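ok so heres the complex, two chains, lmk if somethin looks off
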Amino acid sequence: TQLLEQSPQFLSIQEGENLTVYCNSSSVFSSLQWYRQEPGEGPVLLVTVVTGGEVKKLKRLTFQFGDARKDSSLHITAAQTGDTGLYLCAGTWGNMLTFGGGTRLMVKP
Amino acid sequence: ETGVTQTPRHLVMGMTNKKSLKCEQHLGHNAMYWYKQSAKKPLELMFVYSLEERVENNSVPSRFSPECPNSSHLFLHLHTLQPEDSALYLCASSQEGTNTGELFFGEGSRLTVL
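and the predicted structre for the whole thing:
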């Protein structure tokens, strides 16, 4: 079983602050995805990273895939209240997709 | 029209009831999934239908029974559930063969078992 550990589990910050959340594993993944889930909704795909060392940007969000394809990070610049939600990483290994436990982010006005 | 639609959004049932959750996808995908989301646990894959073939997670109790009549529709039949089965049940779809496993989720059905 491939395990993905996300940290921190919970994060509460003020609007305008920067933050980084992490997704780590001992396994090598062929690709890794980040999803955001807002309260009362299903997860929505934000990005997929495939190549080791890859960096993708989505407005104020920066995603990085580790060189060894075992870990990933999500950095949010100048957080807004609309960024509040559960951030899930999911790694693809063969035909399996494994989810991490998530980071629950609260951005206060 | 949203990509993946789930009904009902909320369901309360007793342990002796029989109910069903429904999922419909409008994305032309050929794989559909049921996930269970409980508090403080990672998303748990329950069932996969890929190219209309069922792939089962052996740890799912038999009181959960999936049905996939075609590539656009997926059901989860519920019978004699336990209170610990209370959770958010998420349906998802994907296009097999992309090698990235990108999933498109519905909004979920919040199940409470009394």
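quick notes: The CA atoms of residues 30 and 51 of chain B lie 5 Å apart. thats all i got rn
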